[in-house]
Amino acid sequence: MTAQYVLAIDQGTTSSRAIVFTHAGTIFSSAQIEHDQIFPRAGWVEHNPDQIWTNVREVVGIALTRGNLTHDDIAAIGITNQRETAVVWDRTTGKPVYNAIVWQDTRTQSIVDELGGSEGAEKYKSRVGLPLATYFSGPKVKWILDNVDGAREKAERGDLMFGNTDSWVLWNMTGGVDGGVHITDVTNASRTMLMNIDTLTWNEDIAAEMTIPMSMLPEIRSSSEVYGVGRERGMVPGVPIAGILGDQQAATFGQACFEKGTAKNTYGTGNFMLLNTGTEPVASKNGLLTTVCYKIGDAPQVYALEGSIAVTGSLIQWLRDNLGMFEDARDVEYYARKVETNGGAYFVPAFSGLFAPYWRPDARGALVGLTRFVNKNHIARAALEATAFQTREVLDAMNADSGVDLTELKVDGGMVANELLMQFQADILDVDVVRPQVAETTALGAAYAAGIAVGFWNGEQDVIDNWAEDKRWTPSMENSERERQYRLWKKAVSKTFDWVDSDVV
Fold this sequence. Notes:
Layout: E1 5-11, E2 15-21, E3 27-34, E4 46-47, H1 49-66, E5 74-81, E6 86-90, E7 100-101, H2 109-116, H3 125-128, H4 137-147, H5 151-156, E8 160-164, H6 165-173, E9 183-185, H7 186-189, H8 204-209, E10 219-221, E11 224-229, E12 240-246, H9 247-254, E13 263-267, E14 271-278, E15 289-294, E16 302-309, H10 313-321, H11 331-336, E17 346-348, E18 366-368, H12 376-402, E19 408-412, H13 419-429, E20 432-436, H14 441-453, H15 460-466, E21 469-473, H16 479-494
Parallel strand pairs: 1-5, 5-12, 9-10, 13-19, 19-20
Antiparallel strand pairs: 1-2, 2-3, 4-7, 6-8, 11-12, 13-14, 14-16, 15-16, 17-18, 20-21
Helix pairs in contact: 1-6, 9-14, 10-12, 12-13
C-alpha cells in the first residue's frame, strides 16, 4: 500500500510533538508531551536531552497509534526544533555531557563580552548575519567545554558531538551510537554564529576563537533531502527522514511565504517574525537578524530578516506558574476581557534581556504605571498587550530594513487562538492580521520539506494550494489612541535598561 501520510516531529521549547499530516496538509493525528524546564540559577535555562529523546519516541508512537497507523503508512519524516538550544554529547556512549543549554539562557554573557572585545556585538555580523549575543549556540558550546569536567579533553580527542536539538533527535532516530547520522540543516546552522551566511559553510576562524573543535560540528545539508532512515529505536524503521527546518523557518515555509516580501509571525514561547528577502542576504540596520529561510535540495538558498522576541507566551506561563494567577494559560483571555484597558499598566517581560530590535542583555523585566486602580485583570491584559507591542517594534524595524511596508501579517502558533490578542495586534500594527486554517504551521512546514524531498508533494506550489485563510482581524483603533499607547510602551521599555551591573544577575 502506498504511504498516505507524512509525520512531523516538532521538538519545541516546552514540549515535543508528533503530528501526522495528510496530502491536503490537514492534521490526521497527533501527540504532545511537555518536558521539564530546569532553572539552576537566575538567568540559566536548561533541558534534559535524554528526557527530550524519550518524549520524542513516545509521541511518535502515540500519534501513530491514535491514527491507527504503522510506519508503513508514513512516506517521510520532517523534523523541526527549538533553535539555538545546544546539546553536546559523547559519540561513543550517546550520553549528553551536560543538560541542553536553552536559547533563553544568559549565562554566556561574559563569554560574549570577551569574544567581542573592542569590536563588540558587531564583530562577526558581516560573516554570520548575527550579533554576538547569548541567544546563539556557539558560546553555549564553549561554556560547556570550559565548565564540564573532562569535556574539553574529550572534544579535542574527537569524542564529542554538538548540535541543536534537530541534530540530537536525528542522530538518535537514525541509530545513535549504532550508525546515527550527525547532520544539521542550513537554517539551524545559521543560528550557531559559526556558519558563513553566504557560503553556508562552517567558519573555522570563528570556531577557533570560540575554542570549538571542528570535529564536533554536524555536516550542513539542505532543508529538504533524505538524510537517512529511521531505525527501530525511533519507532519508524526504514522511513526516510527527509526534512529539517528550525521552528521559525518551518513556520514560514508552512505559511507559504515563498515570495520575496512575504512575512509571518509565530506566537509561541517567544515571538518570531520572518520576512522573505529572496536569494541574497540582506544586512539589517535596525536590530534584526540575517538568517537562512530555507533551502530545497539543490535549489539556491532563500534568506530572511528575522525579529526575535524572547518572552511572549512564556510570560503567560510565568503568570500561571510563578504567580498562580490562573490554572490554565488560556484563562488569561477571560481575565483580560474583564477590563476595557490595561489601567495604565505596561508589562515589559525582559526576563532574558531584550532581543530585537534592542539587543540589551542588561535589561530586566518591569511592570510599570501601577496605581491602586490596577488589579490582576489589568495585569493579564498588560501581559497580552506586551506581545503585540513587541511585535510592533519588530515590524517597524522590518519595514525600515526592507523599505516596503507590510500590508498584512500572517500569524500562527498557540497564542493566535486568543481573539483579544489578535484584535489588539491588528489595532496596534494598523494592518490586517490573518490566521490560517491549520495553525500548526511549524510542524506543517517540516512535513512539507520532507514530503517534497520524496515526491509526496511536488514542490512549493502544492504548499501554496493547500494554504487557506481561517480568520482575519482588521484594525479598529483610532490612530491617536494607537500612537498614545505605543508611546507609553516605548517609555516603559526604557525603564528596563541598565538594570544588570557588576553585582546583579
